[in-house]
Amino acid sequence: PADGKANIGVTGLAVMGSNIARNFARNGFTVALHNRSVAKTDALLDTHGDEGSFIRTESIAEFADALATPRCALIMVQAGSATDSVIDELASAFDEGDIIIDGGNALYTDTIRREKEMAERGIRFIGAGISGGEEGALEGPSIMPGGPASSYEVVGPILEKISAHVDGQPCCTHIGEDGSGHFVKMVHNGIEYSDMQLIGEAYHLLREVGGLEPAALAEVFREWNEGDLDSYLIEITSQVLAQVDERTGSPLVDVIVDQAGQKGTGRWTVKSALDLGVPVTGIAEAVFARALSSSLPQREAGKSLPSGATNVPLDTGDDFVEDVRKALYASKIIAYAQGFDQINAAKDEYGWDIHRGDLATIWRGGCIIRAKFLNRIVDAYEENPELRSLVEAPYFLSALTDCIDSWRRVVATAVHAGIPAPGFASSLAYYDALRTSRLPAALTQGLRDYFGAHTYRRTDAEGAFHTLWSGDR
Ligand code: ATR
C-alpha cells in the first residue's frame, strides 16, 4: 500500500509461519512480522529479509499499527490455548471490520466458537486449514478457509495468490461458514492416514508374500506412480524404500522402529465420524493400526501366538504385484468415498454450503494427498454434484469393477498368509455391505426388540412394531 503499511501480517514465526510469511513476500505483498519472542522475527529477517518487503514489529500494538486497514492478520501459533490468547490480544488491538485468520491446526469446534466470539466483537474471523508442510507453506500450500463469504472476498485473492496452482487454478477456495475450513482440513488429514495405511499394507504383502526386497519395491512404487495411483505419497514411498542407511548399509526402512506416531487429526476425524454416524472405516482402521503398532505390552504378550496353517497355496503368481496395486486403488476409492460422505454429513449438521467437487480441486496441489486421482473426483462431482456416494460415479464404478477380483484375491491371500491388512479388508467389507440387498441388521433389530422393546419396522407395513417374542413367555 502507498502509505507504507503492510497488506498482511503474520504472527507466530516458527517453521510454518516463517515460510508462509516468505511466500507472501515473494508474491509481492508487504508483510508485517510478529512473534512473541523477537528473536524468531530477527532470525527470519537475517536469513531471508531480502526476499521481499517485510515490516519488523516487536509488539502487538506495533503489529496492528503496521497493517493497512481493514487489517488482515494470519495467526500461525500452536493450536489450543496459545491460539486463544493470541486471538484475544489481536482483537483488542484491532478495530471493527478487521480480519483475523487462524492458519493453525485448530479443532473445528474451537473455530466455530471463536468465529462467534469474534463476530460479537465486530472482528471478522477466518479459520483456514493449511496443508503441505514446510515446503508447501513456502512454495504454495493447499488452503481451506472457512468464514463469512464477505470476509473471503477481502482475503481470498491474497490467499489464492500464495497457494499452489494446478492447471492455472489456485488450490484455495472459500469452503463455507465458520469451522468448515478446519473441518475439511481435518478430514483431509484423516484421508492422508488411510492413504498411508493402504500403502503400508501393499508394501507388507509384497515384501512378505511376494518376496520383494525394498530396492525392488522402490521400483514397483515408482512404476505405480506413472499410472492411476500417481500421487505425492506413492512417489515418496518409492524414495523412502530406496533409501539406504549410512550406518548399517541396510535399507533404512529396516532400521526404523515400527511404531507409528500421531498428532491427533486422524483421531479427531474418527471421533467426528462417530458423532455424525458416518462409517469411515478406512480412516478408523488407519488410526487404530497406528495405535496398535504402539501397543507394546499387547504386542509383547501376543508375540508367540500361533499363526495356524499359513502354508496354504498362495495365489502369488506374476500377477500378484498387479493384484496388490488394484487392491490398493479400490481401497483408496472407498476411503475417499467415506471421507466425502463425512463432509457431506457435516455440511447438513452444521449448515455449511460446501461443494465437494471444489475440495477435490484444491487438494490436487500443495497438500500431502495431492494425486492425479483427485481430477477424477472433480469430474465426478461436476457431472453430478449430488452423488450419493463416489462409488456410483461412472469412472469409479468402472474402476471398482476392474479391481474387484484382484481385491478379493489379495484380501484372501493376506488372511491365508497371516499378514494383517485391515485397510484392504475393511474397505472390501464396506464395499460388499453396500452391495448386499439384505443385511443382518434385521436380526440386530430383532434382538434389540427382544431385550429392550426397541421396536422394529416391517418390510410390508408402515409404523413401529413390537413382538411378544415366544422366548418371553
Ligand atoms: P512449529 O510446530 O512449527 O514449531 P508451533 O509449535 O505450532 O510451531 O508454534 C510455535 C509458535 O507459537 C512460536 O512462534 C511460538 O512463539 P515463541 O517463538 O515465542 O515461542 C508461538 N507461541 C506458542 N505459544 C504462544 C503463546 N502463548 N503466545 C504467543 N505465541 C505463542
Automatic annotation (TrEMBL):
Q: Which family does it belong to?
A: Belongs to the 6-phosphogluconate dehydrogenase family.
Q: Which residues bind NADP(+)?
A: G12, L13, A14, V15, M16, G17, N35, R36, S37, V77, Q78, A79, N105
The cross-references to Gene3D superfamilies, in alphabetical order and at most eight, read: 6-Phosphogluconate Dehydrogenase, domain 3 (1.20.5.320), N-(1-d-carboxylethyl)-l-norvaline Dehydrogenase, domain 2 (1.10.1040.10), NAD(P)-binding Rossmann-like Domain (3.40.50.720)
Q: What start-end ranges are recorded for coiled-coil regions in this protein?
A: none
Write out the residues that bind substrate: N105, S131, G132, G133, H188, N189, Y193, K263, R290, R448, H454
InterPro entries given in the database record: 6-PGluconate_DH-like_C_sf, 6PGD_dom2, 6PGDH_C, 6PGDH_Gnd/GntZ, 6PGDH_NADP-bd, 6PGdom_BS, NAD(P)-bd_dom_sf, Pgluconate_DH
Residue positions of the active site:
K185 (proton acceptor), E192 (proton donor)
Keyword Oxidoreductase attached: yes
Q: What does this protein do?
A: Catalyzes the oxidative decarboxylation of 6-phosphogluconate to ribulose 5-phosphate and CO(2), with concomitant reduction of NADP to NADPH.
| This protein's record includes keyword Oxidoreductase | yes
Specify the 6-phosphogluconate dehydrogenase C-terminal domain's residue ranges: 181-470
Spell out the molecular function terms from Gene Ontology: NADP binding; phosphogluconate dehydrogenase (decarboxylating) activity
Q: In which pathway does it act?
A: Carbohydrate degradation; pentose phosphate pathway; D-ribulose 5-phosphate from D-glucose 6-phosphate (oxidative stage): step 3/3
Q: Name one GO biological process term.
A: pentose-phosphate shunt
- An example of a Pfam family matching this protein is NAD_binding_2
Q: What is its EC number?
A: 1.1.1.44
Q: What is this protein called?
A: 6-phosphogluconate dehydrogenase, decarboxylating
> Which reaction is this enzyme known to catalyze?
6-phospho-D-gluconate + NADP(+) = D-ribulose 5-phosphate + CO2 + NADPH
Query: What binding partners and quaternary form does the record give?
Result: Homodimer.
Cross-referenced SUPFAM superfamilies: 6-phosphogluconate dehydrogenase C-terminal domain-like (SSF48179), NAD(P)-binding Rossmann-fold domains (SSF51735)
Q: Which UniProt keywords apply?
A: Gluconate utilization, NADP, Oxidoreductase, Pentose shunt
Q: Which PROSITE patterns match?
A: 6PGD
